[in-house]
Design brief:
By secondary structure, this protein is α/β, with parallel strands linked by helices. The chain contains 7 helices and 19 strands. Strands 1, 2, 3, 4, 5, 6 and 7 form a 7-stranded antiparallel sheet that branches. A 5-stranded parallel sheet has the order 10-9-8-11-12, sandwiched between helices. Strands 14-13-19-15-17 form a 5-stranded mixed sheet. Keywords: 2Fe-2S, Dioxygenase, Flavoprotein, Iron, Iron-sulfur, Metal-binding, Oxidoreductase.
Length: 315
């Protein structure tokens, strides 16, 4: 669907918020805390951004976009090209990071731009009178995004960890020291940050099904030197398509006129999920569960590869 950019705000030196509304003033499709939207960029890319505002607000979506020095063309395009009044194409909201229905108390951890889905969760928890603690980790005070909202609406829940300020440091070990069956932990931010929080939680015997996180970027992909050649067989036609070491499955298929819908191209969003009929994939995604990986019945061809010489796909 198409929406219009109503406003743009500089939240930090490299994070901007974008307020999106319908062109005719009607309500937008509903969403739940932790949802994201796909944004179609003018340079041919599609990228995902979490909705940061409260799900009770029907008239707009607010997203936060970090202009990443290592951008693959998404965030830099948005920062440099998007203007107030622009008409852009987005998807309806999807939620891969929901608030668990049995959450009676929550611990929210955000690192940097990871504040966006966590902020939406905070809004929902507050509305539903579910107690929560809110921890935000940044490098310095100028890096705090949505600071006015955090201090005005969540003054009782928010705690800042500011790396260059000795007066604003948090003891994660202490915070996570007492696991309770009513508590759920939600984390979003850089992969290293999320791994650290999860490691500390596991140290204190938090149950796995009480730990929830969302990825913005995948872990570093294997280099081409680690890749091996293999072939993909199209079940419906029997066509055998070779996959080079420096080529993804979706790239090879597209060159042969077989298109699979892709979005993140990192195995995060699940857009490209494809059924496997024969062969064993080498899973490199962060979308599927361990059980789904073990079944080898489905995989993400945008980033995953094959352990067997031939992988037969249900295409």
């Amino acid at each position: 669907m198409y929406v219009q950019i109503k406003s743009i705000k500089d939240l930090t030196p490299n994070i901007r918020s974008f307020e999106l509304i319908t062109e005719d003033g009607r309500d937008l499709p509903s969403f739940t805390a932790g949802s994201h939207i796909d944004i179609v960029l003018g340079n041919g890319l599609i990228r995902q951004y979490s909705i940061a505002n409260c799900c009770s607000e029907k008239n707009h979506y607010i997203i936060g976009v970090l202009e990443d020095d290592h951008s693959r063309g998404g965030s830099s395009f948005i920062h440099q090209q998007f203007k107030v009044g622009d008409r852009i194409e987005i998807s309806e909201p999807r939620n891969l990071f929901p608030v668990h229905q049995n959450t009676n108390k929550a611990l929210l951890f955000a690192g940097g731009i990871g504040i966006t889905p966590i902020l939406s969760m905070a809004h929902t928890l507050k509305r539903e009178n579910i107690p929560f603690e809110f921890y935000y980790f940044v490098r310095n005070e100028n890096a705090i995004a949505f600071k006015d909202i955090l201090e005005s609406k969540f003054s009782e829940e928010i705690h800042f960890h500011i790396e260059d300020d000795p007066q604003n440091q948090l003891d994660v070990n202490k915070i996570l020291s007492k696991f309770e069956s009513s508590k759920h932990l939600y984390v979003c931010g850089p992969n290293g940050f999320m791994d650290f929080i999860f490691t500390m939680a596991e140290k204190h015997h938090w149950q796995k099904d009480h730990l929830h996180k969302e990825h913005f970027t995948a872990d570093s992909a294997a280099s081409d030197e680690e890749n091996t050649e293999f072939s993909v067989k199209i079940a419906s036609t029997g066509e055998l398509i070779p996959i080079a070491v420096n080529q993804s499955i979706t790239e090879a298929l597209e060159k042969c006129g077989i298109e699979i819908a892709v979005s993140c191209e990192q195995g995060i969003c699940g857009t490209c999920l494809t059924n496997i009929l024969e062969g064993e994939p080498e899973h490199r995604d962060m979308f599927l569960t361990d059980e789904e990986h073990a079944s080898n019945k489905i995989f993400t061809p945008c980033c995953s590869r094959s352990k067997t010489k031939i992988l037969v796909l249900d295409l």
